User: Fold these one by one.
Assistant:
Number 1:
Amino acid sequence: MSIAKNIEGIEYKINKACRQWKLNPEHVNLIAVSKKQPIERIKEALEDGHRLFGENIVQDAIQTWEKSGLKDRYKGVRLHLIGALQTNKVKDAVSLFDVIETVDRPKLVDALVKEIKQQNKQIECFVQVNTGEEPQKSGVVPSQLASLLEYAEDQGLKISGLMCIPPVNEPSGLHFAFLKKLAQIHKIENLSMGMSDDFEKSVPLGATHIRVGTSIFGERTST
Ligand SMILES: *Cc1c(COP(=O)(O)O)cnc(C)c1O
């Protein structure tokens, strides 16, 4: 299967779910997760006209998108950071990414506010919610979400979305429905939820961004 065909297949499924649930497919953005994929595969997606990509490690993303010249060569590329962000990487992250989906603590809010001002750059920020309250996972626990959102607002950082990664051994639909509820309560418009295995469940629940890696590019190279 070619990468273009894979993307087409996923878009077909998005459209089908949207028709079934009377949703507008234009509100569902397909983020092609290019982490740990060979450049040739990413180029194939770019040549096919795809422009929305996700990466989880700042340094890897710099290699793949900046050092390689890909981001300059293909106009209109938008990059989402979908992995945990350390404060010492905020400068690089703000410089490369268009959307940071993993804001999860006040210290990170502070660092982002400072760096966004410094670089005078427009960036969108989502908050990652640890809906399963897993100790090893980043994201703010649901009980701390309200205070984090309030803090971000006080500091002048607009939060335009929520993101979650459900625990592997639980039905993801419950977590997607929960995240949607949290977004409604806090009047947040974007919902980043759903990956290769479960985006068909997240779309009916109102996902605005789905993050699909292996179903587009195939298995990731190790390391
Ligand atoms: C790797 C990753 C994905 C993509 O996962 P696939 O199963 O390859 O679709 C989505 N979201 C996050 C946060 C990831 O780290």
Number 2:
Amino acid sequence: MQFIDLNRQYDRIKSEIDGRIQSVIDRKSFIMGPEVTELEEKLAKKVGRKYCLGCSSGTDALVIPLMAFKLNKNDAVFVSSFTFFASAEAINTAGGTPVFIDSDETYNMDPQKLEEAIIKTLSEGKLKPRGIVPVDIFGLPADFDKILKIAKKYNLFVLEDAAQGFGGKLNEKWDGSFGDVSATSFFPAKPLGCYGDGGAIFTDNDQLYELMKSIRVHGQGTDRYDNVRMGVNGRLDTIQAAVLLAKLEIFDDEMIKKAKIAAKYTELLKDTFKTPIIPENCFSSYAQYTLQAESEEQRNEIVKRMKEFDIPVMIYYPVPMHMQTAYKYLGYSPVDLPVCESFSKKVFSIPMHAYLTDDEIQNISDKLKIICNK
Ligand SMILES: *Cc1c(COP(=O)(O)O)cnc(C)c1O
């Protein structure tokens, strides 16, 4: 069994994907071909943003807007600790300093702890609060109702890390539409994945769009060989855009299927584990279906026994960002962010994709219950 079964998806749309890739090869328009523009227009419309910029990865989709905000070392950017490394790393790459925020029970950034951290940073006076990077972890939108109010109160930019969130919704608005600018990833295992690295940036802001468009291609000015600022090589490949266009056709259907699968899992497993908490105004893209064991020992047992049953189980994330070796210099201790510290010891994710059968869902759930004697 596969954790995310890309074979079944490919079987479904093989001729569309193959045909679109072949036409890029026939034209040899590998860099910034028409598929990139077509995809950017379709994605902007879907997410409900004025602009979309295709990028070389989700990481670059975070770095480019952060470069546009012109950070320096004394600029604090508040980011979830319970996330993938890139959410925080991008802040350093762009020259700033991350300040880590603990989670609430949804795994997302706790807005109350965010405000406490802003107040603490202001009173310490060493760093200057500049922005917030809320992450839509596991596909659930962060609490933007509260976070956007806090951002306004303290005059901070908001960069939504929607790398896992594409397809998620809050108050009927799509992930990728919150804050000044949003980043998503098309890494193959993400809700909308390509066949390599890829990502996209979304914004409604004209100036920010022009700036990011320039940074995406080496800080290019109006003329191709006139470079007016420092940038990166952050373009999306045409072949990846072609794959994404084919996959976009079935994306909404896949989201509906995943929501049904998640509901089945929750029904079968809610008496055995803490199942995902999805607030009423939210729709999750279920980048991961994540459960919480009672203890670290129970999780170890689950990981070991599920392996014997040949069912893949993954741990996202065993080490929160404030405890990463690369962030030792910031001087955090585990007790500083106790909620995500506890998550990191207890969470595990089980197979989740649109092509899981009822039998597979039942089997995975049964095996988990056997392991926990329930
Ligand atoms: C995957 C991911 C990224 C980085 O995306 P890449 O395309 O792998 O560079 C950033 N943030 C989060 C939350 C992610 O899950």
Number 3:
Amino acid sequence: MSIANNIRAVREGLPEAVTLVAVSKTKSVDEIMEAYDAGHRIFGENKVQEMCEKWETMPKDIEWHMIGHLQRNKVKYMAPFVSLIHAVDSMRLLREIDKQAAKHDRVIPCLLQLKIAEEESKFGMTETDLTAAMNSEEIKTLHHISITGLMGMATFTNDTDQLSREFGRLKHVFEALQPEHPGLKILSMGMSGDYQLAIDHGSTMVRVGSAIFGARNY
Ligand SMILES: *Cc1c(COP(=O)(O)O)cnc(C)c1O
């Protein structure tokens, strides 16, 4: 299978309302261009420097999403162009994104990451901290960010009961916040191995890498 065929196959399998982020981390410009030439425009990267290099050389109608854990000192490099930051996990990081976005006269859309994995290693906010951040007075003063949704990363497992629990919890927190925060539209959950299940649980944005580009060599 070619990258072009893979991406068509993944897209055809998605409901209309679900956005596909093609996760292109570690992949070359040539490989990404195969997906681009097949009509795809939304790509996700997890390293700021790699994303900046690709942004510089690639067509400017690409929407670049930062999907990885983010350090505050790297925000400035992508502030001119990043379209969506998926994994925001602290008010300190939000403040920095707001500050850098202001310098470019932009409003950068952000997703707050909820820690849903039952395993230890994954990043994200607790439900208590996330809800407190959403309801804080401070967040209303950050005019150069907008929180457009939530993101989560499930445990790396084949246990569908566990995955269902984790996705279900994210959906539950999302729905609990929505009445007070109608700007929450995006629920970013699901990767190559579990995106169908994530969609069953209400995902509106899936982040799919290896099912499109093949396995990654680190
Ligand atoms: C790498 C990555 C993905 C894509 O993983 P695949 O299993 O290759 O689809 C999705 N989300 C995040 C945050 C990632 O880092």
Number 4:
Amino acid sequence: MTDLSAVEGSASVLRIDLDALRANYRLLRDRVAPAECAAVVKANSYGLGAREVATALLGEGCRTFFVARLSEAEALKGTLCDDSRIFILNGLAPGSEARCAALGALPVLNSHSQIANWRALAKAKGRALPAALQIDSGMSRLGLSPEDAIALAADETLHADIDLHLIMTHLACADAPERSVSDAQLANFQAVRAHFPDVPGSIANSGGIFLSPAFRCEVARPGVALYGVALVEDAAAIRPVVRLDVRVAQIRTVPAGTGVGYGLTFVPDSPRRLATIGIGYADGWPRHLSSVGAAYYKGVRLPIAGRVSMDSITLDISDPAADTLAEGDFVELIGPSQSLDDVARDAGTIAYEILTRLGQRHTRIFTCERPTVLKYEG
Ligand SMILES: *Cc1c(COP(=O)(O)O)cnc(C)c1O
């Protein structure tokens, strides 16, 4: 195991490999070139830390960022440089337009009301305000219908109010290259784009980058692939970014017939050696992993024994290969033995959900060769 001496006293350690993050960015950037590769840093960079992630990506030349909410853009104030821009995917809640304009962030305008509110502020200021326009090309989530967008394009006064930096859409099935719906969405999107000549387009999220080159447009918007999740076979070179190790709080041996944990749902039929570790559903470790998931010690699978509690989990460590595991040692929850995808599959969910719910209680270490190891307690 990598040296964890820097984390003496920590019950759990979430390590974020900024070199892997940067390598993933370069891989995606090279794949979408000559299109621009932006970075989606919403939800605190999928739970990893938006400021640290954005700083690392700025170092790779990334200059366009996407968040979901205005508050997330505000949290990055002072981190992004003057020549970078930040888009707010969900657009603006009514009444927050002035805050957004003051910050210099660019809302993604999804609806007629969002457009009207942004235009009203532009008129009040007497100048065009920057924004993106989202088209619903077939996902029925956010954005104007193609017909409404084409009607909007015919409004000659639009450009006096809105300086359109981007026209975008989002794919419903980007990670399923075998499905033809993405092609239909692309066609719908291109039909609208013809009415907005000279406005750069954006369609590809991580999955979209691995579809045909037509999906790259002028700006790609990867999120999860940056953070180490390889959604499709073609993305196999994506490097894992996250590692989670949790310390053993207590070890005991119980006789056959002893119930373990809430509900006493685990009752072994032979004596067992058990280890309790300090992570639970309050740390985003899904309760669905009760008696299903596992942790690893030196590559040995240690099954979860009974229910996942709020702050702890009990592992069955009876495997003789785990004999040397002692109180105070770390076991691996996410790492070389168990990927985010493995955990997600066991929990009946997707890697995105595991990642974004990891929570704030782990000691976070951002590792990189250069410049230094940054350590955050939290
Ligand atoms: C979250 C999101 C992305 C990034 O998606 P990934 O699948 O994580 O790459 C891109 N575009 C929009 C509109 C999103 O909501």
